[in-house]
What we know:
By secondary structure, the chain is of the alpha/beta class. It has two domains: 147 residues, D-Maltodextrin-Binding Protein, domain 2, CATH 3.40.190; 96 residues, Periplasmic binding protein-like II (D-Maltodextrin-Binding Protein, domain 2, 3-Layer(aba) Sandwich). Strands 1, 2, 5, 6, 7 and 13 form a six-stranded mixed beta sheet that branches. The chain has a five-stranded mixed beta sheet with strand order 10-9-11-8-12, sandwiched between helices. Strand 3 and strand 4 form a beta hairpin. The longest helix is centred in the last third of the chain and has 16 residues.
Amino acid sequence: MSILHxxxxxxxxxxxxxxxxxxxxKEETAPTGAAxxxxxxxxxxxxxxxxxxxxxxxxxxxxxxxxxxAISAKIGQPVEFKDMGFDALIPALQAGQIDxxxxxxxxxxxxxxxxxxxxxYIEAGLALAVRKDEKTIKGVGDLQGKSVAVQQGSxxxxxxxxxxxxxxxxxxxxxxxxPLAMMExxxxxxxxxxxxxxxxxxxxxxxxxxxxxxxTLDSDSYGLAMRKGNTELQTKVNKALGELKAEGFFDxxxxxxxxxx
Length: 261
């Protein structure tokens, strides 16, 4: 999520490596004589607004969702979304249960060992959220001895664990999703939440008791992830991303989801 996202320990076996080059897309009915069209199965964790979330009707919506739908139209494949826990996304990709991850996934060297990424599509960074009545935390240098909430498997979690090892913070609580981490902060269960800045901004806008500190911990980029070695899908996705950027589609998404003019 930079929202959090995400330590995954992957155990390689001969069987799992073989799955890297496979595809899980479902075949759709095609006109007689035409090749079947495979559905692009996309994994996401729909508690990461404004990138992925559920609307009042229970439908999965968000920046990433609109983006993938636009990509699917470009590459000529229908899309199906699967909502799952964030730390289950990469294992599901490796097991062939999904074809693509679209879930505010930060591009990291560690993840590059087990997945292939699209080109970056948005810049992000880790931010600090505190309660508005907090008097002692003004920035990163004030976190020694403080309790920190993060999302499991996120870059925020990885950063917090490193800070804990260096005794720059007092403790870490990990939660399955960002809303639970923010709830813990709001009720006083922790002193600060470390999370991706765009997502933290979305939560702060809706929470009267929480505020965002101006200092960020680092910066990173989000990318879409596919199985290692799936160069065909990677090429298609990158071509579509390039076309969408040139057409101004990303500007439209930013206005829609970040109110950016």
